[in-house]
Task: inverse folding
């Protein structure tokens, strides 16, 4: 019995543009990476100014498999760890 099903939604042109001008894009799971790229019809071309943050190594590997660079990876693989990593990175 499935408890839930994750279903990707198509990204609007506005959502894709918002990703291209964001300071950070965060990913909390490998499925989020896959669905983001699927919804964008492949990994979107992001400028070097956009930093990608990952919750942990499995998510980071999924990002690399999609051809996306990982700039920040949480040391502790939970939301608080991701937030700590983001704050530390932004402070640099």
Result:
């Amino acid at each position: 019995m499935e408890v839930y099903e994750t279903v990707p939604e198509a990204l609007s042109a506005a959502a894709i543009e918002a990703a291209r001008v964001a300071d950070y894009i965060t990913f909390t799971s490998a499925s989020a990476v896959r669905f983001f790229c699927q919804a964008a019809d492949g990994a979107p071309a992001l400028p070097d100014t956009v930093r990608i943050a990952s919750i942990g190594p499995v998510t980071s590997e999924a990002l690399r498999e999609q051809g996306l660079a990982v700039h920040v990876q949480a040391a502790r693989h939970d939301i608080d760890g991701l937030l700590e990593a983001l704050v530390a990175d932004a402070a640099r």
Notes: DSSP finds four helices and three strands in the chain. The helical segments are 13-21, 30-39, 57-65, 79-91. The radius of gyration is 13 Å.
